[in-house]
Structure formats: structure tokens, C-alpha cells
């Protein structure tokens, strides 16, 4: 037994640590038959179950996500997920269109939150995120070619989260504060399968858009039926209510 600085370390403590290190090294060695990225050992060492680490590493190798994109909150949430649920979440993430997602770590956390909610509502056991939810038909998405053309024409950005799709805000070369009260318009009764590739063209007719926020339902993947459009001045916003 050794003692110093108020800490006591026993042979059992040292042995247990060595055993844990050996187990981690064994997991890394066992996975060598599967192609992996250089970040795979980091996933094992941070405590992810091997099959979950392999699935996340598959996403790394796809180019959709880099290890530096994930913060501790996302990794900790994955560790707390049952294995089956974590793999299902990562599969859904891999199949998602992440082209306009700026914060992929937050987006992954949003996917996990939605999965938990779906599992509680439709799983075979109460509150279990490990239950497999029934496969649903993917919601119709926007026309990516039309969106690309709009963004190239206007120079605006599109930022996608699990809760909204935000176009602009601010526009390119905008100087000064955001538009004040009276510049925002609420639009309801939007068809569930309509996106900004159609909405922008409609609302541009009334004036210069500062930003457009289409609210999304992460449970269904469709929009919630309403959006908020902010114009650069009150006159344009008023015109939009008439058009």
C-alpha cells in the first residue's frame, strides 16, 4: 500500500485499472477486421458500446460527421441510450440530409430526443428508448435543386434543425439591427409537404425577406403547418398580408 498527498492506492485498485485498460485494448483489437477511422479508439475509450462505436464510426467514414463535430453532451447521451436505440438513432442520422445542418451535434441530440418520445408513445414497453419503433414512410422533402438555385441566386443561408428550417437572418451584406416590430408576418395553414423551395418564391413577391422560419415537427418529419416571415420593413410586411 502506498500513501501520499492524502490518497491511498491499493494493489486491487491498480489491478482493476489495468484490467479495464486491457478490456478497452481488446475491444479495439477485436474490431480491427472492420474498416475504421482513426477516431474509432476515441469512441471506445469514451465508453461507447462497441457496436454503437462502430455505427458512429461508419458515419465518420461517410463524411457526414467528424469526431470534432460532436460535443460531450451528445456523446454522453449516446452512452446513456440502450444499444438498440442508439444504433437506430445513428442509422436515422446517417440517412438524414445534413447538407444545411450547421450544428450536427445539436441535431443528433434532437434526433435522440425525438426517438425517446416516439418510443414512449409507440414502444412495447413504457418509457423505453430501446424499443424498435415501427418503420414509417419518409416524409416528402423539399426539392434540393430548387433550394440550391435559390441560395445561389440570393446568397442567403439555410440552417436546418429538428425544430425549424431557417432561411436568411440576416440577408447578405445586411448592416444594422434586425427589423423591428411590425415586420414579421405569420402564415398558417401551410400544406404539410410544402417547404421553403416554394414558400420563398411566394413571399418574395411582397418584398425583401429578412428571414423565413418554417416550423417543423420532428415526430413526423413534416412541417407544423405554419411559418414566420420577417421583411426588411413594415410596408413589405403589410403588403404580404394583402397578397
TrEMBL record:
CDD domains named among the record's database cross-references = RRM1_hnRNPR_like
**Under what name is this protein listed?**
RRM domain-containing protein
Q: What Gene3D superfamilies does the annotation carry?
A: 3.30.70.330
Superkingdom field: Eukaryota
Disordered: annotated segments: 1-32, 118-144
Name the InterPro entries on file: hnRNP_Q_AcD, Nucleotide-bd_a/b_plait_sf, RBD_domain_sf, RRM_dom
**SMART domains annotated for this entry?**
RRM
GO molecular function annotation: RNA binding
